């Protein structure tokens, strides 16, 4: 098989699971968003990084899932990120794959929480403040050895409670 | 399937290739070794790292290959390394796996060089100074985006030439 054909061939599904177990990341970002109901957003995202020389393999992963995008990690960065941010793609393409070909490392625990959060959001449970707080708590349980988060859990929860109190009071008046 | 059974089951071969494509490393260390023929050693090694919480997956990779060892990366380190250093294990277990289930990323180029070096050493070609220098050159072509090497290629080659000249002169006298 020529190198070109090799690049066209769809990756083996277990290969993709092995890749993500080693090098992928399932995370849920919690960040301020002034226009939203409680002032914060919960954003599930699936990512994997590679040096820009390895664009081809990221592109094959993108083709495998038929979703996601490939972008430089930052301005002037030599690193590319393949990421899936669309909740619909995560629900329809990412989650079913990792149910059928499950992660084998400790990352499977992150995926379980990730899936729980995405599925709750699909049921619109995050429209309720108590569930929103619960999902934020779950998000903060993920990737215990990852980079430190920008916001502290206590500060987010405190802000959410104040914000929901304001919403309640506004409704009453 | 219970979690225990899951851990006992042999990993899918494509999973292992995907893992190593993302998170594995094929490298050939070149380091001084005073007692050896030319004063330097060429040491092929296959490695993958994980946080110590992920001992189980490293152990399953070890079982998959039926070789290698798992050790802390350094004293007091939270990171574990699975590594295969035995040339026999590399020849009999590692190389045949990655021939049958080939790496799909740019890392396949590193593997090609790695394999070339190991196979040349199996044929004892490194006992000849010119081939030794050639293999050192190949080793330095690997992992272009990896950590910087401790020794510079030019210094190694210069030292090897001086050392082989001394050996020749000693034989003549």
What does it look like?
Two copies of one chain form a homodimer. In chain A, a hairpin with a 7-residue loop joins strand 1 (24-32) and strand 2. Chain A is built from seven helices and four strands; from the N terminus they run ααββαββαααα. Chain A has a four-stranded antiparallel β-sheet. The model of chain A has no long low-confidence stretch (mean pLDDT 90). Chain A is 53% helix and 18% strand. Chain A has a single domain (3-172), classed as Homing endonucleases (Endonuclease I-creI, Roll), CATH 3.10.28.10. Chain A is of the alpha+beta class.
Question: How does the SSE layout of this entry go?
Answer:
The structure is a homodimer.
Chain A: H1 3-8, H2 13-23, E1 24-32, E2 40-51, H3 55-65, E3 69-72, E4 79-84, H4 87-100, H5 107-122, H6 129-141, H7 153-172
Antiparallel strand pairs in A: 1-2, 2-4, 3-4
Helix pairs in contact in A: 4-5, 5-6, 6-7
Outline:
The structure is a homodimer. Chain A has helices at about 5-10, 15-25, 55-65, 85-100, 105-120, 130-140, 155-170, and strands spanning about 25-30, 40-50, 70, 80-85. Chain A has about 170 residues and is α+β, with helices and mostly antiparallel strands.
Keywords:
homodimer; alpha+beta; four-stranded antiparallel sheet; 4 strands; elongated
Question: Would you identify the regions of chain A where 5 or more consecutive residues have pLDDT less than 50?
Answer: none
Rough outline of chain A: elongated
Q: What is the domain tally of chain A?
A: 1
Question: Which percent band covers the strand fraction of chain A?
Answer: 15-25%
Number of strands of chain A: 4
* CATH topology category name of chain A: Endonuclease I-creI
Report, as a whole number of angstroms, the end-to-end distance of chain A: 72 Å
In N-to-C order, the SSE pattern of chain A is: HHEEHEEHHHH
Oligomer: homodimer
Derived from helix and strand composition plus strand pairing, the structural class of chain A reads alpha+beta
Question: Mean of the pLDDT scores of chain A?
Answer: 90
SS element count, helices of chain A: 7
- Share of residues in helices of chain A: 40-55%
Strand count, sense and barrel status of the largest sheet of chain A are:
4 strands, antiparallel
The first-level CATH class name of chain A:
Alpha Beta
Show the largest interface: A-B, 28 and 28 residues
Assigned CATH architecture of chain A: Roll
Strand order of the largest sheet of chain A: 1-2-4-3
What's the CATH H-level superfamily name of chain A?
Homing endonucleases
